[in-house]
Design a protein that fits this description.
4% helix; 13-stranded antiparallel sheet; 40 strands; 2 helices; 560 residues; mainly beta
Length: 560
C-alpha cells in the first residue's frame, strides 16, 4: 500500500471512529502465535524461501512492542547478497538488498484494518556487534526502526544461530494502530544440516505497549535429506622452523566446498617425529580467559560463503597443566568460542560441538618464537599429519592426510653425517592459475658434501598436467627452465615430468611455464573465485648414486 493510499485509509478510519482515543485497559495484552510455510523446500543445506506467519491477538488497542525472532541453529541468512554492499550502504529504492516480503495488518483505533505490503531489506548494522540490520520497507519508506540481526554466541541456551530483534510502532502517521498479524516470506535462507528426530523450533518472543510481560510461541522446523549431503573436507599443514631456535610456526587449514555439510568435530593429529609439543609454550598458559590479560599463542581465520569478509580471531592455550585446551575466540559479529582438548601423549587436539555454519576454510596459525607450542630437531623434517572430521549430522567421518616438510631445517641438521643429507625443497609457488596461464616454480638443494642431483621427477597437483608438443614424429615438452643445471632430457612417465640433467648439481631452480602446463577448468574456476588455498606437490629427487628421495610439500603461495 502506498503512503498516499495509507493516508486515505487512515482518514476513513478517523471519520468512522470519530477520532475517539481508545485508552488501553488494565487487561490489555497480546498472545503471540507462529506458523511456518516450508512448501518451498526443507532439504538440509539447501537454500529456500520460508514463510513465517505471526499473529498477536491483541486485546483492546494494545499492540506488540519488542519482538524477537529466534531462528534455530543452522537456519541462516546470506549477508553476502549484492556482494556484501548491503552491510555498508542502505538503499530502499531497489530490490538489490531485498531479503523478504510480506503484509503487516494493523487496526486503526482498534477497529479499521489497514493491510500494508512491505519488503524486508538488508541494511548496515544499527549497533556495534550486529551482523546486519533489517529494515521494513514500504515503497521506499522505512516503517519503524531498523531491526538488529545478531548471531547468538557460543553457550547460548538457544544454540549458535541468528536472532532478529524488532521494535514495532504503535502509530502510523500519528494515528494509533494495533498490529495483529505479520505474514512474511524470508528469501534464500540456508537450511540446517542436522536432522534430529525431534525438529528444532523457530520461535517468537514479544511484549506489548501495555504489558511488559514477554510471551513466546514456537513452531517446529523439520529438515530432511541430511544423509545426502556431500562431505569431503581436505587438510593441509605448513611448518616453518625459527631461524635462531628450534621452535616452529605451524599452520593447519581445513577446506571444503560451500555445498558440503559443515563439520561438527575436528581432531588434528601432528606427528611427534616432526613436531613435538614444547614445554616453553606453557609460559603462555591462560588460566582465566575472561580476565582480558592473556597472551595469544596464535590466530584463526575462517571464510564463509554467507559473509563477505574473512572472520579473524585469536588462539589461546587454556585449561590447566594437567588438562590443556586450545581455545579459538572470534569477536562479534560472530561471537564464537571453539574449545579443543589437547592430548599431549598422542599430540592430538580435538574440537567438538562446532556450530552449523558453512566454512570453506578454517585456518589456525600457532606462532613460533621462544614460547611457541611446537619445536623440532629436524632429524626427520618431512611427515604426515591427519585430520579426523565428522559432519554436523554425525553420520559421516573423514580422515584426511596432510604431507608436509618443515621449512628452515638445515639439510644436515641433527648430526646427520656430511654427504648423506636428504635433498630439501623450498620456494614452491604458483602463478597465473586464475587466468589460465599457470606456472610453477620450486628449488631443490642438497647438503654440502652430499651426493649431487642427477634427475627430478615432478608429480603435479590435481588439475595440472604436462603438455606435449609434436615435432615431426616425436613428442616434445616445452616451457621447462632449470637454473643451476643444464637439461639433458625431458620426458613424461605415467603423467609425471622427468627432468634429467647433463651433469649432477648441488641445487637446481625449476620453473614450469604455461607452455609446459595444462590447467583443468575446475582448477581455474577455484582459483578465479578465490576458493583455492593450497596445492600438494611431490618431487622425487635422484642423486648421482641412484638414490631416490620423495619430497612432499604444500604450495601456499598461489599468486591469487
Amino acid at each position: 500500500m502506498s503512503k498516499g493510499i495509507r493516508r486515505v485509509a487512515l482518514m476513513s478510519a478517523v471519520v468512522a471512529c470519530g477520532l475517539v482515543a481508545l485508552a488501553p485497559s488494565a487487561e490489555a495484552a497480546i498472545t503471540p502465535a507462529i506458523s511456518l510455510d516450508q512448501s518451498a523446500g526443507k532439504t538440509a543445506g539447501s537454500t529456500a524461501n520460508l514463510g513465517v506467519d505471526l499473529t498477536f491477538a491483541p486485546s483492546g488497542s494494545d499492540s506488540p512492542d519488542h519482538m524477537t525472532l529466534n531462528l534455530p541453529p543452522g537456519l541462516l541468512a546470506n549477508a553476502s547478497v549484492n556482494g556484501g554492499s548491503c552491510l555498508t550502504t542502505a538503499d530502499l529504492n531497489d530490490s538489490a538488498c531485498e531479503v523478504g516480503s510480506g503484509v503487516v495488518t494493523a487496526d486503526a483505533f482498534g477497529t479499521v484494518p489497514i493491510p500494508t505490503s512491505v519488503t524486508f531489506d538488508l541494511v548496515p548494522p544499527p549497533a556495534p556487534g550486529d551482523l546486519a540490520g533489517l529494515a521494513v520497507n514500504s515503497n521506499g519508506t522505512q516503517v519503524g526502526s531498523t531491526a538488529d540481526i545478531k548471531v547468538r554466541p557460543s553457550g547460548d541456551p538457544n544454540g549458535v544461530g541468528v536472532t532478529i530483534q524488532f521494535v514495532l510502532p504503535n502509530s502510523l502517521d500519528g494515528v494509533p494502530i494495533s498490529i495483529h498479524e505479520i505474514s512474511s516470506t524470508f528469501d534464500g535462507l540456508r537450511y540446517p544440516t542436522t536432522c534430529p528426530s525431534t525438529a528444532q523450533t523457530f520461535s517468537v518472543a514479544a511484549d506489548s505497549y501495555s504489558d511488559p510481560t514477554v510471551k513466546s510461541a514456537s513452531a517446529p522446523l523439520p529438515v530432511t535429506g541430511c544423509s545426502g549431503l556431500p562431505y569431503s573436507p581436505t587438510f593441509a599443514v605448513t611448518a616453518t622452523r625459527d631461524s635462531n631456535d628450534q621452535q616452529v610456526t605451524v599452520v593447519t587449514n581445513v577446506t571444503q566446498s560451500a555445498s558440503e555439510a559443515p563439520s561438527r568435530s575436528v581432531a588434528l593429529a601432528l606427528p611427534f617425529a616432526q613436531l613435538r609439543p614444547s614445554l616453553a609454550g606453557l609460559q603462555r598458559l591462560c588460566l582465566n580467559l575472561a580476565s582480558g590479560t592473556c597472551t595469544p599463542v596464535g590466530s584463526v581465520t575462517a571464510a564463509s560463503p554467507l559473509y563477505p569478509k574473512a572472520l579473524t580471531g585469536q588462539a589461546y592455550l587454556t585449561g590447566s597443566v594437567t588438562s590443556l585446551t586450545l581455545t579459538l575466540v572470534f569477536p562479534a559479529p560472530f561471537p564464537l568460542t571453539l574449545v579443543g582438548s589437547v592430548n599431549l601423549l598422542s599430540n592430538v587436539t580435538t574440537f567438538t560441538g562446532l556450530p552449523d555454519i558453512p566454512l570453506t576454510s578454517l585456518q589456525v596459525k600457532l606462532d613460533g618464537g621462544a614460547n611457541g607450542l611446537f619445536g623440532t630437531l629436524c632429524k626427520a623434517p618431512s611427515g604426515t599429519a591427519h585430520a579426523t572430521l565428522t559432519d554436523q549430522n554425525g553420520d559421516k567421518t573423514v580422515t584426511a592426510p596432510a604431507d608436509f616438510t618443515i621449512a628452515g631445517c638445515p639439510a644436515s641438521a641433527g648430526g646427520t653425517p656430511s654427504g648423506t643429507g636428504s635433498p630439501q625443497l623450498s620456494g614452491a609457488s604458483a602463478k597465473g592459475l586464475a587466468s589460465g596461464h599457470p606456472s610453477l616454480s620450486f628449488r631443490v638443494k642438497v647438503a654440502k658434501g652430499a651426493a649431487k642431483l642427477k634427475a627430478l621427477t615432478v608429480d603435479l597437483p590435481r588439475g595440472l598436467s604436462i603438455m606435449t608438443h609434436r615435432a615431426g614424429h616425436k613428442l616434445t615438452i616445452r616451457g621447462v627452465k632449470v637454473r643451476g643445471g643444464a637439461i639433458k632430457s625431458l620426458s613424461k612417465s605415467h603423467g609425471h615430468l622427468v627432468i634429467t640433467l647433463k651433469r649432477a648439481v648441488s641445487g637446481a631452480a625449476v620453473t614450469l611455464t604455461g607452455k609446459a602446463l595444462a590447467e583443468s577448468a575446475s582448477l581455474r574456476s577455484q582459483a578465479s573465485h578465490h576458493k583455492l588455498k593450497h596445492l600438494p606437490l611431490t618431487v622425487i629427487a635422484q642423486n648421482a648414486k641412484g638414490r631416490r628421495t620423495t619430497i612432499r610439500v604444500t604450495v601456499t603461495h598461489l599468486g591469487l
